[in-house]
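Late entry, evening session. Most of the bench is empty. Finally got around to the prediction I had been postponing all week. Sequence below, unchanged from the version circulated by S.P.
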Amino acid sequence: MRLKKVLIVVKDIEKSRKFYHDLFGIELVLDNDGNMILTEGLVLQDEKIWKRFLGRDIVPKNNSCELYFEEQDIDSFVRKLERLYPNTEYVNHLMTHSWGQRVIRFYDPDGNLIEVGTPI
């Protein structure tokens, strides 16, 4: 068995598609009317569809999981993030762990937690 994709819930699917394209270069593979499959195994699901399917409230910024990306040139990435999305809410700005890895954590427009770190 293999994990094939990771689905995140979003309020504005087109805004989220643009966000992930702008920052990470992730491209649209298939648009199924409220369910977008993107490259890198990421799926965006419209909040209304997900809420109807689950029958439960969606809790943004629940901090129970994160999308993790690695970037060799993290300083350039941080500059791009600050330039393109100046109102980003950060969990932590660029920092260095005791083992030497540099990381930044922030929320996407829908409160999904993202970490970008230098390769381990």
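Two things to note before I forget:
The chain is about 25% helix and 35% strand.
The mean pLDDT is 96.
Will write this up properly tomorrow.
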